[in-house]
Amino acid sequence: MKKDTIDSKIIELIKHDENISNSEISRKLGIPEEEVEARIRAFSDTRQKILIVDDEMDTLLPLKRSMEAEGYVVAEAYDGFEGIKKAKDEIPELIILDLMMPGMDGIEVCSRLKKDEITRNIPIIMLTAKDEIRDKIKGLEIGADDYVTKPFNLNELKARIKSVLRRARI
């Protein structure tokens, strides 16, 4: 089941019986009770969610802390495969995606996300040490919404995040 479908079914069950337990919802929908609890908690969290996909802890952790300080909920993934899975599970409002990662690079991740019905409309900011024009063009052509090179200015990245999120709401 897709995330929206599961959430809708949970809401319907709660509307029908406001005293229904998480274990009963879990049984009726065939999903783990922990997932039911997490989804119900997420209903009341209106903060925007950002997924950061980067294999470099020196980039990921400070960026995560900074985004959390700005009021975002931040999910993280350490490689392309995990990034795709988390994007589908979490459905963030924005993905910050490193270009150079082992296994599956950011170009392939971006391409797969943009081809998938569930994730195609999630804006992506490529964050990478590759600053050649052809790399930027390739990233933008496959669907990235912006491209920021490392080392980056944190205030500029924050401004770009806000700008991309603003455009995504239109």
SSE arrangement:
Blueprint: H1 3-16, H2 22-29, H3 33-43, E1 49-53, H4 57-69, E2 73-77, H5 80-90, E3 94-98, H6 106-115, E4 124-128, H7 133-141, E5 146-149, H8 154-169
Parallel strand pairs: 1-2, 1-3, 3-4, 4-5
Counted by DSSP, the helix tally is 8
Number of domains: 2
- State the helical fraction: 40-55%
Main sheet: which strands, in order across? 2-1-3-4-5
Radius of gyration: 17 Å
Bulk shape? elongated
Sheet of most strands: 5 strands, parallel
Topology as a string of helices (H) and strands (E): HHHEHEHEHEHEH
CATH class of the largest domain: Alpha Beta
> What's the CATH H-level superfamily name of the largest domain?
Response regulator
From the N-terminal CA to the C-terminal CA, the straight-line distance is 28 Å
Strand content is: 5-15%
What average pLDDT do the residues reach? 89
- The name CATH uses for the topology of the largest domain is Rossmann fold
By DSSP, the count of extended strands is 5
> What is the CATH architecture annotation of the largest domain?
3-Layer(aba) Sandwich
What structural class should be given to the helix and strand makeup? alpha/beta
Low-pLDDT residue intervals, each spanning 5 or more residues: none
